Amino acid sequence: MSALLLRDLRxxxxxxxxxxxxxxxxxxxxxxxxxxxxxxxATLAVIAPGVLWLGALLACLLxxxxxxxxxxxxxSLDLLATAPLPLEAVLSVKSLAHWLTTGLPLVLAAPxxxxxxxxxxxxxxxxxxxxxxxxxxLSVIGTFGAALTVGLKRGGLLLSLLVxxxxxxxxxxxxxxxxxxxxxxxxxxPLLMLGGITLGAIALLPFAxxxxxxVNLR
Amino acid sequence: MSALLLRDLRxxxxxxxxxxxxxxxxxxxxxxxxxxxxxxxATLAVIAPGVLWLGALLACLLxxxxxxxxxxxxxSLDLLATAPLPLEAVLSVKSLAHWLTTGLPLVLAAPxxxxxxxxxxxxxxxxxxxxxxxxxxLSVIGTFGAALTVGLKRGGLLLSLLVxxxxxxxxxxxxxxxxxxxxxxxxxxPLLMLGGITLGAIALLPFAxxxxxxVNLR
Amino acid sequence: xxxxxYANPKxxxxxxxxxLPSLWVASxxxxxxxxxxxxxxxxxxxxxxxxxxxxxxxxxxxxxxxxAWFMMLLASLIWVIRRHHVSALAAKAAAPVGxxxxxxxxITGAIWGQPMWGTWWAWDPxxxxxxxxxLFYLGYIALWEAIDNPDTAADLTSILCLVGSVFAVLxxxxxxxxxxxxxxxASLSLDKEENVADVxxxxxxxxxxxxxxxxxxxxxYRTGTEIRARRMKTLIARERxxxx
Amino acid sequence: MPDLGKYADTxxxxxxxxxxxxxxxxxxxxxxxxxxxxxLKSVEKxxxxxx
Amino acid sequence: MIDVRDLSxxxxxxxxxxxxxxxxxxxxxxxxxxxxxIGKTTLLRTLAGLQPPLAGEILGDPDDIAYAxxxxxxxxxxxxxxxxxxxxxxxxxxxxxxAIKAFNLxxxxxxxxxxxxxxxxxxxxxxxxxxTGRRLWILDEPTVSLDAASxxxxxxxxxxxxxxxxxxxxxxxxxxxxxxRVLDLTPFKAKLPALDADDGGFL
Amino acid sequence: MIDVRDLSxxxxxxxxxxxxxxxxxxxxxxxxxxxxxIGKTTLLRTLAGLQPPLAGEILGDPDDIAYAxxxxxxxxxxxxxxxxxxxxxxxxxxxxxxAIKAFNLxxxxxxxxxxxxxxxxxxxxxxxxxxTGRRLWILDEPTVSLDAASxxxxxxxxxxxxxxxxxxxxxxxxxxxxxxRVLDLTPFKAKLPALDADDGGFL
Lengths: 218, 218, 244, 51, 203, 203
Ligand code: HEM
Ligand SMILES: Nc1ncnc2c1ncn2[C@@H]1O[C@H](COP(=O)(O)OP(=O)(O)OP(=O)(O)O)[C@@H](O)[C@H]1O
Ligand SMILES: Nc1ncnc2c1ncn2[C@@H]1O[C@H](COP(=O)(O)OP(=O)(O)OP(=O)(O)O)[C@@H](O)[C@H]1O
Ligand SMILES: [Mg+2]
Ligand SMILES: [Mg+2]
Prior knowledge:
The complex is a heterohexamer, with two copies of chain A (218 residues), one copy of chain C (244 residues), one copy of chain D (51 residues) and two copies of chain E (203 residues). With 218 residues, chain A is mainly α.
């Protein structure tokens, strides 16, 4: 189990920095927003928490296709499926590795990028906290999507299409918490809901992911 | 030449609708924006042109990795490089196929999605026109990025990282034209600049793309 | 004599062919009748004017959009548990009908919103959750299309449908929490005072019944088509096997 | 034709769009049904003809 | 070690082989032969537990099987040593030295797997079998791309594995110089199913 | 057809083979042999013009070469026929029937390439050579995964190609039953460069 986690982390670091790239994408989306909506700082401040959440979500989404597809292509997944590890555990570990290499860096970077978007001072704590609570759900849900599409030739965009609607509740509660936090309103309810989604997803989705992966392998 | 175009179009249609998927991604990004920045329709109207441009750009970006990587993986690219077609022409045709399957549908969908974002009534013409002029540049520049990263194992995110800065001028002029149009201001200058970028990119970039592809193949 | 007999494709085809003609006729009669009744023979609403006539399309379509998903959920469960091919194919057959119903509800709603709320679209919870439903349909259909092997496709799409349903409900709550709506509440519930007046209600019921029958007829017919397509695929594969 | 007042465009376009979509759905369904049916028939004939 | 009774296997929902039957005691090898497309890969995947059989049974402990497919399952950015160590840890074994030695990988151990030639990669993926500690090896065309010397190494490894009580099933088109039963799959080719089978299926 | 003089080839910037020298007249075949990792693939890619030589020259018309690599270059979602037609059109040839016949693909012609077995795929990728109309075929382990009958088909195709004035260079580890010169690459293995060679490189 820990061997798998270590291997995935090592691969992420070694493959030309799978680690830094999610982060870089996040940075670039954030930077592109002023180019596209215009440089007015009042507008930017209003949309800042939302942009940070959306950017994190997209960065996460884009890294999903390397979550399982690489192992599928070179045959490792067949071998892992016949190894003495339950597939549910394999997938949970892979979600964890994905979160550590993608979600966690995004959480840490968000406050820095908030500066670029004129995020109001009260918002920094809440954007970080909401991302910290919400991104694990993104990884786990994403693993399900990756397992669904793993057999398909370059299922990249299909993967996005399938996963996006599943991300809706997480995004809504997460962004709502961040926005309320930035506006100085109460954030307990959305944060609690967000936590509930994350815990539920971590507890249940690996079983669904393993089931679809088994179907795809056969 | 036409054989290659036909094949690429056929592959796009057959691979579970590579055609519709860029579109679906565009739709999803547009839908997610209100979830993240909140449902206030005045705010949405202000950022609508920018969001549409950014969404189109991201949809384009995400489909780049199937532009050359698939041909690379199964060895077709080696074979095409030794075939009696100049590599520049091969890459131009591939850009064209990419635009037909990704850029053009985005242009057609943009006004519909504008409705979801409360795009001001004057903006519909200009968002469509600016995308029509700008998206070919996105495909050609993207081909260059794809050729740069084709040898790398799952260069997906690296590709985004490299291409994004190259997209900046196109995005700035395109979004500026759309925003001015929506606000009822003069749009000639940004549209002309946009057209210039597109023509320049179409004329010159295929040579650069072919050069980097040759390096990657050896 | 159990209901599972119809899980045999032949039996299913045989029976559905017998009931389909009357279903087509009944649904056409109800829809056309209900629409004519509603369009020509009901008064205008005192607040909404003649736009109230849109309700005869809008509400039945919205109803079927949701119920089609329920039907797919049920059929997916049957496939997962009992592995009857017909039920998987029925789920596949229902999805495009469901997405068109969703689209009709969205479009009529948008057209209605223009005079009533002064905007084509607002991020009202009900509207928003329909948009999300539309995305679920889109993903579901795309997944069916993307997979060659029919059994694999059936397995994957049915699990997607189960997981998706959970998330669709979650989205509904999330969206409600996120924005208070403009849209009227369910006014057909029996105990509310603000029920639509009977003049509107009866043609509406007629149309709803018509849409339900139309949906059933379409799904039966399309399931038959899927069964035949599946048999054809198998036959062609069999033929290849014989000369490969 | 009832008097639709100032909302005539709204009501009529809603009806037109919905009926168009319903008709489209029906036509596509029937068309694909007929095509699959006839293709299946020809395949069956070919196969049984071959033995 | 494994006992296969009246097994039918299918690919893409269609029967490929029917009525395959064999028993493989410990310390023996079985070589599967048959023309391209007969269903060797499909049979091996079924035995390895990656897909369910269409009919018949497979008696044996699925947790005692190590499978090696057409694809190598190597991580190209990891070194030879890291690749082996990973699989050793997954399978709970710990010593990779015998495997390195048996396949003559010592000189390559710190090289990234991506920089190996086709045959060197193959050697590495065969070495993986030795660190699984599993007793039944299921091998799909194991010697593709190997030169004569490496084929000898491979044969010697198989012999050692058999002598220590293991067993192996392999599909191959060429002669490996391994003594073992040969099973030609041609006679088991699935017959055409009846056109009107009333089984709730689609034929 | 091709004349190779004192050729050195490199992989990842490091010399692999040195001083390779041969001339191949029309209507002859050259079989490259050598242990795994000696540099056969690298040499063939250089000959095909995919990478520049390190030293030496290759005389011959690069536009008369068709290359077939380890990878198949097939589009898995296209059918056998569509795959072949595409390459035929790219190379300006138009008739794919001889190729279909030569590799016994008639029964598979409407199947998606993705649904073929390993050997069937290989047959398809070899058939591609016939529609190129090129005279010099460069083949890297062409018979991997092929059964005995298909190897015969392949040998017959090569013989026909040679008889019609073509030529072929192939790397292989097994015996194909094709008469032709055999070149063992072992003696050409690059020596270690001197540590202080003053050539502007880093050694
Ligand atoms: C564009 C998107 C819209 C969507 C997706 C939508 C969705 C729905 C749904 C799902 C229902 C069924 C509710 C139920 O029976 O519980 C419904 C009913 C209804 N809608 Fe809409 N709606 C939209 C826009 C509008 C607009 C703009 C109006 C008019 C101002 C409108 C008026 C009504 C009315 C009067 C009902 C009947 C409610 C009832 O009394 O049950 N809708 N709509
Ligand atoms: N998706 C599919 N649809 C139809 N037939 C298929 C599909 N996939 C594989 N087949 C067929 O199943 C048969 C068994 O294939 P398999 O890969 O098991 O053969 P094999 O014996 O391993 O051949 P090889 O020696 O070439 O590797 C082949 O005839 C193949 O064409
Ligand atoms: N990136 C690299 N760094 C260092 N050495 C490399 C790199 N890539 C390849 N090599 C070495 O170059 C040599 C030539 O490899 P090549 O693939 O040409 O061998 P080959 O003769 O085709 O072998 P095989 O019979 O196994 O296919 C091998 O020894 C290989 O290890
Ligand atoms: Mg095989
Ligand atoms: Mg080689």
